[in-house]
Design goal:
Distance between the termini: 30 Å
Low-confidence stretches: 1-17
Largest sheet: 5 strands, mixed
Number of strands: 8
Structural class: alpha/beta
Number of helices: 11
Helix content: 40-55%
Radius of gyration: 21 Å
Amino acid sequence: MKEIMPKIESISKPEAEPREIDTYVHEFCSGWKPETDEEIEIFEKTKQKLEESLLEFGQKGSRVSYDKHKKEFKADDGRVVPKSYFSVAPIWGKNFSFEDVENMSFEYKQMKSAYRKAWVKEQTANIFSPTIARIQSQRERKQDVFLSEAYSKLADRFEQETNGVRESLGSQAERVVRSFLTRISAEMQDLKISIHPANPYQDVSEKIDFIIEATSKKRGVGIEADENISQTVGIQFTVNNSKLEYKQDQINKAKNRALDVDDIILVSMSQDVLSKALDSWQKKGDLFEEPAESISSSVREQLIRQLFRSLVNEEEISRIVKKYC
C-alpha cells in the first residue's frame, strides 16, 4: 500500500521542479529503468522523440470554443463537447485544438490544461511502450526465450497499432474499459480516482493491462489530518472467458513477485457484448462519446462492481452505479 506523505516545508534551497516530460515518463515507467549504457542511449532517444511530439499539441483537430453564457464547450462545427470527453479523447486518438488568446476564461484554460494532461499521458505511453518492450525482449533473450518472445510480440503490436493497423479485440476491450473509468474519474472527481496505462513490464511480467489508483484520507491515532493514503489495483481484462482459470492462475503467480501495485484482479466481459458495443459506437459516428455508452446498463453495473470493489465503499459504488447505469 502506497502512502502519500504530507508536504514537508524546508528552509533549504528548493530543488528545481521536474520537467513536465520527466514527470510523465517517471509515472509511466513506474520503477522500470534502463540499466546499460546502450539502454540509456535508447531511452534518451525515445524521450527526445516524445519531446518533439509535444510540439504537435494543439496543432490539429477540431477547434474548441467556450460559450460562457451556456457554459458549454463546442467544436468548430457547433456541436457540444462534454467536459469529460477531453480526458477520454486522447485514448481514442481524437485531437482538439484550443485558441491561444489573451483574456481566456478560467473554464477554458482549465479544460485546455485537462486535455493536455490526458494527451501527454497517452502520448508518453504510445511512444515509450515499444522501446521498453524491445529492451525487455533483449534482456530476457538469454534467460527466458518464451518471455523474450512475448515482449517482442508486444513491441510489434504497439508499432503496428501506431502505424494504423487494426488492434486486436483484446486491446480494444482494455481501451474501452480504461476509457470508461477515465470518464468516471473526470466526472466524479470527489472519488479521487485516477487511471494509468500499464507499461510493457507490468503487462507481460505482472499481468496488468491498466492501473486504478484511489486516494483517501488516512485516519487513526497520531495521523496528521492532511496525510493521504493511495491504494493501487492492477487490472487484467479479458474477453476470452474460456481461459479465465488459466489467467487467474497467472495472476496468482504474479502476486508473489515484487509488485508496484497493492493487488491485481481479473475482470472479464463477453466478447460478443464488446463486439456489439464497438459496432454500435462506430456506426454512430463522431458523437463525442466513449464506447461504454453503447454497452447495456446491466453490463456496465457488473463492470463497476468488479473494478471498484476493493477501492471504494459500497455507498460510493452505489452512487457510481446510479449515475452510469
